[in-house]
């Protein structure tokens, strides 16, 4: 069985920057600890990526807070998470892929997961990161659609959301779709 870790949007803007909060910040050591288990055959990191015209996009009109503008400090993956990934897997190795994405769910990630799945359906995929109710759930549901027989698990202590309530609601929604929540 192949084991994959998906680290969703652990970027400065969602932790300490424009859209950060204390709950999201608390996931940093939990995500780093999960990386340090060294348990995975492959690690994907997603990176929310917007351009300077963000405020004119549909997302920007609904959430008029500039964030994750490509190349800025806020766009970068948190240093502690990135250095854990580098230490254990080597960010330049083929075991690690960093995927930028223009919206909540990454179609590229789903297709990469599908490529593993086509080789071996006995696949286990763990998800960690932020925000549980937006980008984590979006990518989990895409993985569920592309890899229906894979075992999907969300590590709740290594995820956080805009509020505790939205975090819990998203975990419940994923449970309903037969995702393991631990
Ligand atoms: Zn965004």
Structural commentary:
By secondary structure, the protein is α/β, with parallel strands linked by helices. It has a single domain, classed as Rossmann fold (3-Layer(aba) Sandwich), CATH 3.40.50.850. It is built from seven helices and six strands. A six-stranded parallel sheet has the order 3-2-1-4-5-6. α2 packs parallel to α4 (79-88) and α6 packs parallel to α7 (164-176). The longest helix is centred in the N-terminal third of the chain and has 15 residues, at 22-36. The protein is globular. The two termini are 20 Å apart. The structure holds zinc ion. Zinc ion binds next to loops.
The small molecules bound here are: zinc ion
CATH homologous superfamily designation:
Isochorismatase-like
Low-confidence stretches: none
Here the CATH topology equals Rossmann fold
* Largest beta-sheet details: 6 strands, parallel
Main sheet: which strands, in order across?
3-2-1-4-5-6
């Amino acid at each position: 069985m192949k084991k994959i870790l998906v680290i969703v949007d652990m970027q400065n803007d969602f932790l300490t920057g424009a859209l950060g909060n204390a709950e999201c910040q608390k996931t940093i050591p939990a995500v780093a600890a999960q990386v340090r288990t060294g348990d995975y055959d492959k690690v994907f990191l997603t990176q929310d990526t917007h351009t300077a015209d963000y405020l004119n996009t549909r997302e920007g009109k609904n959430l008029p807070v500039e964030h994750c503008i490509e190349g800025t400090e806020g766009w970068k993956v948190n240093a502690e998470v990135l250095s854990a990934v580098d230490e254990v897997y080597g960010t330049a190795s083929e075991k690690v892929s960093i995927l930028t994405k223009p919206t909540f769910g990454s179609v590229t990630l789903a297709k990469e997961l599908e490529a593993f799945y086509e080789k071996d359906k006995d696949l286990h995929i763990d998800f960690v990161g932020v925000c549980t109710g937006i980008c984590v759930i979006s990518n989990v549901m895409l993985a569920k659609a592309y890899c229906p027989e894979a075992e999907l698990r969300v590590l709740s202590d290594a995820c956080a959301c805009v509020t505790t309530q939205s975090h819990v609601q998203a975990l419940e929604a994923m449970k309903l779709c037969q995702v393991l929540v631990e």
